[in-house]
Amino acid sequence: MSTVTKAMLLAAGRGTRMRELTNDVPKPMIAVRGKPILQHIIEGLKAAGITDVLIVVGYRKEVVTDFFKDGAAFGVRVHYVTQEVQDGTGRVVELGKDFAGSDPFILSYGDILVDPANYLRLANPGAEEAVISVKRNEDVSKGGAVFVNERFELTDLREKPKPGEPTSPWYNAGVYTFRPSIFDFTARLQRSPRGEFELTDAIRDLAQSGKLVQAYELIGDWADVRDPEVLAELNSK
């Protein structure tokens, strides 16, 4: 896989768990240490050589577009696409198909903060078809449990496993590198039990089709800015 120069950021949701904090802004525009979460992400991506960023907008999209504009002030080219229907992370990725073209790309949820050094690894993948970032010992009942073999290759991915179901110490950390082959699998998605098209189902299907999906353990700090408590902790440091 060649060096990655494109990234897609998912920033269409309101973030209802943030309560009144998202009355006027989408969750990825909430400030952490004086900057919107999305700005932290874009600055980290730029430092890793990313030149083109597609931001998927929806709720209060003008807040995002007015802030980043064409990206020139941040040293990247920023493009926008609007998610009209909130029907899951699987379908939203398809909005980046034209943007990606035949190139690999990094994909990140717009509320995930990582040590910027991780973007360099994700921007320089090997021969794998996809890379999934993981953290150890997070609460997998709040996200995805990532199952790997002895070569740290993904073998299964289960969303929010319930007590008694198979589990794993590896938590899906919400940042990925994909080749365009991921679109073959998002296109075939069926709705999950919670009624959404899940990106994690497409990633699992990609791996179980025989394609190599490599897990990568993030280094340094990682935060899913999921609720006011996490936000308060980040802003207290």
Structure description:
The protein is α/β, with parallel strands linked by helices. It has a single domain, classed as Alpha-Beta Complex (Spore Coat Polysaccharide Biosynthesis Protein SpsA, Chain A), CATH 3.90.550.10. It contains 8 helices and 13 strands. It has helices spanning 37-47, 61-68, 89-93, 97-100, 117-122, 182-186, 199-208, 228-235; strands spanning 6-11, 31-32, 35-36, 52-57, 77-82, 105-109, 112-114, 130-136, 144-148, 154-159, 170-178, 213-217, 222-224. The strands form 3 sheets. Strands 1, 4, 5, 6, 8, 9, 10, 11 and 12 form a 9-stranded mixed beta sheet that branches. A two-stranded antiparallel ribbon has the order 2-3. Strand 4 (52-57), helix 2 and strand 5 (77-82) form a beta-alpha-beta unit. 42% of the residues are buried. The model has no long low-confidence stretch (mean pLDDT 93).
Observed structural traits:
237 residues; alpha/beta; Spore Coat Polysaccharide Biosynthesis Protein SpsA, Chain A
**H/E element order:** EEEHEHEHHEEHEEEEHHEEH
Q: Helical element count?
A: 8
- The appropriate CATH architecture is Alpha-Beta Complex
Radius of gyration: 17 Å
CA(first)-CA(last) distance: 37 Å
The computed structural class is: alpha/beta
Count of distinct structural domains:
1
CATH topology name, in short, is Spore Coat Polysaccharide Biosynthesis Protein SpsA, Chain A
CATH superfamily: Spore Coat Polysaccharide Biosynthesis Protein SpsA, Chain A
Average pLDDT works out at 93
Low-confidence stretches: none
Number of strands: 13
CATH class: Alpha Beta
From the spread of the alpha carbons, the general shape counts as globular
Major sheet attributes: 9 strands, mixed
Helical coverage, percent range = 10-25%
Strand content: 25-35%
